[in-house]
Amino acid sequence: MNEETHMIWPDGKKCAVMVTFDFDAESMWSSEDTTNLRKPSMLSQGGYGPRRGLGKALEILRDYEAPASFYVPGTTAENHPYAIEAILKDGHEIGHHGHDHLWINPDNPEEEIREMDRGLEALKACGVVPTGYRAPAATSSDMTLDLVKQRGFLYNSGFLDDVYPYRHTLKDGSKGPIELPFHWNLDDSAITYFDFNTQAAILTNDHIFQVWKDEFDVLRDWSGLVNITLHPQLIGRPSRTLLFRRFMEYMRSFDDAWFATGTQVAQAYEAFEANT
Amino acid sequence: MNEETHMIWPDGKKCAVMVTFDFDAESMWSSEDTTNLRKPSMLSQGGYGPRRGLGKALEILRDYEAPASFYVPGTTAENHPYAIEAILKDGHEIGHHGHDHLWINPDNPEEEIREMDRGLEALKACGVVPTGYRAPAATSSDMTLDLVKQRGFLYNSGFLDDVYPYRHTLKDGSKGPIELPFHWNLDDSAITYFDFNTQAAILTNDHIFQVWKDEFDVLRDWSGLVNITLHPQLIGRPSRTLLFRRFMEYMRSFDDAWFATGTQVAQAYEAFEANT
Amino acid sequence: MNEETHMIWPDGKKCAVMVTFDFDAESMWSSEDTTNLRKPSMLSQGGYGPRRGLGKALEILRDYEAPASFYVPGTTAENHPYAIEAILKDGHEIGHHGHDHLWINPDNPEEEIREMDRGLEALKACGVVPTGYRAPAATSSDMTLDLVKQRGFLYNSGFLDDVYPYRHTLKDGSKGPIELPFHWNLDDSAITYFDFNTQAAILTNDHIFQVWKDEFDVLRDWSGLVNITLHPQLIGRPSRTLLFRRFMEYMRSFDDAWFATGTQVAQAYEAFEANT
Amino acid sequence: MNEETHMIWPDGKKCAVMVTFDFDAESMWSSEDTTNLRKPSMLSQGGYGPRRGLGKALEILRDYEAPASFYVPGTTAENHPYAIEAILKDGHEIGHHGHDHLWINPDNPEEEIREMDRGLEALKACGVVPTGYRAPAATSSDMTLDLVKQRGFLYNSGFLDDVYPYRHTLKDGSKGPIELPFHWNLDDSAITYFDFNTQAAILTNDHIFQVWKDEFDVLRDWSGLVNITLHPQLIGRPSRTLLFRRFMEYMRSFDDAWFATGTQVAQAYEAFEANT
Fold this sequence. Notes:
Radius of gyration of chain A: 18 Å
CATH class of chain A: Alpha Beta
CATH topology of chain A: TIM Barrel
Shape of chain A: globular
Helix content of chain A: 40-55%
Number of strands of chain A: 9
Oligomer: homotetramer
Largest sheet of chain A: 5 strands, parallel
CATH architecture of chain A: Alpha-Beta Barrel
Largest interface: A-D, 43 and 32 residues
């Protein structure tokens, strides 16, 4: 148990809310099965993200005046540069999310490094130097945190073991990146992803709102980090925009919830850390 | 993002509703596992379609005066000719849906062509020259759209990347068929299909209605295309006819929803395209 | 479509209700994975049937004065003879359900015949000559219906293509057994079966009642056969007995629903058939 | 059917409630796939248990003055000794749950014995001599009950064939350990476990409460054993603590429900057995 002092939020806020997007686009469907690269209708599920979903998501963010963090694979940046421009124009953060969205495989360190560096290059080409890293599908290897530190990231967001930011300790005992933990209970891919070949149940907006509301309520009660993970291709679907609006409306009704980007939360943790 | 001008519906209608059926019959159960051809009770799940489900579906369409589009595999047309007659007698559209309902495999172009041409022959034998193509299970290869154009189809319906009709651009830069996109959120096979070997959760009519209602409401709000995909063997089951009636009743309560066949929607897009 | 005259129920009843049980006991868990024969706690899931579930089910049947049909694998009869006695004492029908509950495999006709004949012997040892056959898990081969006829069964219950009884026509054109069709929408194993290794969603009684109620309501409206398939090890679990009672209470509130065994329904069909 | 006299609870109580925890921590994710040992973010799902979930669970147990039984794999005891101290400090029972949480495999008896003995050693190092054994994931072999007896356990908790405690009879006819049966319907891993690779539906607290409430109500009505199986890493998630509190509140509203540890229930069974 980790009952020791935990993160105190700035300005007397009770909790922090990070609205984040993994902007996988087509790579969600091809990264683990490259056969799909030759199945254009299969890929079109991801194409909905840049084509329609992103615009709808940005509109809702504007309506609720919420800053967001977009974790963008290199391929998305390369194939949909106008989408990156739109995100940046609205003042949101862009973070690293691999290049081909390949899931990290502990048996393939070369691939992990290549994904990291090609992703950095693709973002650099858009004028972005990311401060946050989120691995595809919350994957990792024993090397990941070292690599995240070596590449100079301020924070990582992919562990599920806490409800407060914390700093990783690396295997050599040195200070690692700050962790901004998340959980599937606040992830739209865990609850709305549908693949015809595996047939997950399609749930109602009411159902999903209840799951998310309960998670938010308790995280707020615990003064925790509400780290919401969305995908433009999922939450931007017609019916799901109702869910996104309803959840934003609900969270925005709490004045003591601090809406912040990943970088802002990590910086607040740094400041807190310096004072304790 | 594709915020440019999109489809405007005829006669000042706010949205278009395509009620479509994939009339797979037995082929739903045998196309991906030919062992099932020797399992008559397994196949009988599909046999319910022509034997009972279709009649129930046609009755509901009549009650709500709704035109529909039936995408019919060649085998269904060959094995259940009276069913095709019943569909045509009620004035509905018949489109192409493969021959054996084989899922398109990018590694087997010969099979894709054979499915296309045998399906065309089977429909021709019923006096039908289809103007619309929908691939089984929303599958496709890099060749599919070229083939759809070569065989003279007006439209394709199998991509999931938009909520408005659009025209495909082929790899050689030429104009391809019009796309009438759909999504699993309005597909009865995504939410009611049950295979004893995989055990998807059987959901209530209330649950499914809520999913479909939210999708319809927002598509209408966006002036989109409501492309509903049903199957006589699924929506024609006793309890599911209640769901179908309820959803038709709901959609029919909006005077600004234009109920049309795929061909009618595609023609409206052609007219719109000519004027923009 | 099969819009011709269909079954008319005796005594002016509007529909028929068959409450049936597949009394698999341990064989539900071992038939498709014999490794489980050496995993006693795995098998104990099935052992709940004869140990507790059956008694609870029989009590509910008595409370609602409902005749039932139990399809019993040979192994259940051999290992739990007192259970067979209890079923017979309450006047219920016992039908055939294989011997080891092996799923029929079209590539293994010897096994299918062996299952059939060993099952018959096991029931004979209990003094039962079954008139109804239901294959495990609704499986079948091209041979099954011939075998069911050869072994002298009056009826088969395992096809899913209709909501009325009908008579099979065999491949040689001769009359086959009467079919009493069923569907997963009224099967407790489709909606309450739980295997820790596959993790189906555990649904609420309210949810399942709504699914079953809608199916019953429409089948009654269509004057169909309500063929309910239950398992003592599933519906006899504590919470599920509430569901079973509630559903029986609901169906019993309709005086025009004829509760009958499979044999009684099949005999009524024979009489109907003779008069049309 | 086992309609004979069954367990009568002490002090005129109507039912017994065992609140139990399988405290797997990281081993839940590595036991069946050791590749995960090199995927720290994957393991972090289990790490939430000792880091946060356990403290939340212990707090709720204190609030409802409920004794609990924690079944602890050896690795958890070795890696998180402070967690064991916290459990013991609150007066709860600690039982055996393997060492690496390896699922019992009937084809690997050496491993089963090693898991048993290494688990005993790890608990012994914490000053614990367990009286109860619960196998990981309710697995077992033909050898398991003999081994449980040989190692001197009073009770086993892993069979699913009854709602009352009973005594096992071993293969040689001798008396085996007392069984405290459970069922998935009251297990948080059956209804809240989420693995991104398999995508079970995330259900609402209301849904789960209804499932658990119905099971409790009928078990109480039958004077049965309410054997609830929880996991700190699952029930200790923010939203799920609401569910745990609500269910405890509900059960505690019945004065005739006897809250007891596994050992207390087994001892009550021994006393009952001696008097019948």
